[in-house]
Amino acid sequence: MKRTMMTVLMIMMSVVAAAAADLDLPRGKWWENERVVARIGLTEEQQSAIGALVYEHAVRMIDLNAALKKAELELADLAGRDDFSPTALRKAFNGFQDARRKLESERFEMLLAVRGKLTAAQWTQLLEIRRFLDRQRENRRPGEGPAARRSPQGQAPGGGGRQPVDGGWQ
To answer: Exposure winner among 34, 36, 63, 128, fewest CB in 10 A?
Structure first.
């Protein structure tokens, strides 16, 4: 029963993640990346507004993510008990679903707010960049790319500081 419940949970989380991926933005602070800014024609005002929006939503998402992790932990604990209660498990599952919905809703609201700061052409170009980066990640073999060139301490060769990721897009 426990294994079945956890499998169902994992499948549901994968479906939600896959559906949201089509509207996802590039990773990192893309609005500060000179190549992305130049490619989509982002103004300084847009950069500033997007940075403020992302920060505002990120603060809320930290708390929502913590609530989701707690709900997931409670659900796993209840499912793993020898004397589990289906009623308690259903209640915990509903709490988990609610926490996940709140986190995804906040993430979606952030996406809408960012989209509202971009023109239709900028939005299209940004999604093209994200799809390009996704294809690059999928095609990369293990041991390739910037992460493979990092030292055991997590520093890129040649010292600290920010290093470009995936051809400098991030």
So the answer is: 34
User: How far does the chain reach from its first CA to its final CA, in angstroms?
Assistant: 43
CA gap 38, 121 in Å, rounded:
13
Q: What is the DSSP letter of 170?
A: -
- d(Cα 63, Cα 81) in Å, to the nearest integer? 28
SS3 169: coil
Q: In this structure, are residues 149 and 156 in contact, taking their beta carbons and an 8 Å threshold?
A: yes
| CA 13-16-17 angle, 5° bins | 85
CA distance 126 to 30: 9
d(CA 163, CA 167): 10
> Distance (Å, rounded) from C-alpha 46 to C-alpha 59?
20
State the virtual CA torsion across 135, 136, 139, 141 in degrees, nearest 10: -150
Tokens standing for 95? 């709490």
- Rounded to whole angstroms, the Cα distance separating 147 from 166 reads 10
Chain centre to alpha carbon of residue 133: 14
pLDDT in tens, 90-109: 999 999 999 999 999 999 99
- The tokens of 45 are what? 């005002």
